[in-house]
Amino acid sequence: MSDAASSPTGARVAAFFDLDKTIIASSSALAFSRPLLRHGLINRRAALKSAYAQLMFSISGADEGQTERLRSQVSALCTGWDVAQVSSIVNETLHDVVDPLVYAEAAELIAAHKADQHDVIVLSATGEEVVAPIAAMLGADISIATRMEIVDGRYSGEVQFYCYGEEKAKSARRLAEEHGYDLTRSYAYTDSSTDVPLLEAVGLPFAVNPDKPLRKLATERGWPILNFSKPVSLRTRIPSPTAKTLALGVGVGALAAAGATWYGIKHRRRAEGNGQ
To answer: Has 99 been annotated as catalytic?
Structure first.
């Protein structure tokens, strides 16, 4: 029986997922730097600079100042880009770029939530043109991502909505109001300490491959820590989404059957409930 079905109020349950280093083993934005380079949207110097910035970001952890600088660099870099061209590049190269990066454990977890009739929601600071197709490929029900201002079909360089930090928590609460989610029974998964507001907004927070500050906080608060380490190709399990599906950002169905990761989480919850 699903959590939603067993809830005395009949409220729905959501599972909120960060994207980078939680579902995929890299930066989603950085992953598309090669096809963007190939199509002439960025030059080699910009690609190397972006790679270096992402490397420093991953080594040092999720520092707010560094994240803001990286956001500013990305905004400046994409100013003037044709939005339709970017979307076309992402859609055409989606499986080749993202397929090898998806954690098997994350795919199993998403499938298990879908099997339990939970809505799966991806929240990411990466641009929506990248996040929406990835979320659709993974079978997510909803995706919320950073939105850039578009003027005459091109990015102006201004950010309309930055899906980062407290904004992720606000988005979760807004979606809960719109869709009737019971946040006290809902889940959140992330690797970054900048997403603590999101973790605090739900009743079942999980730290996935956490940075040092999040690992420390999760240990102090007793939040479960999950270690994902097995990127696996989903090409044989997920059909290529149609252009219509990508545009709408809807899911393409469940992934693999739930495995040991989900069993361990459910077993822990039952054990904790019996101990109360």
So the answer is: no
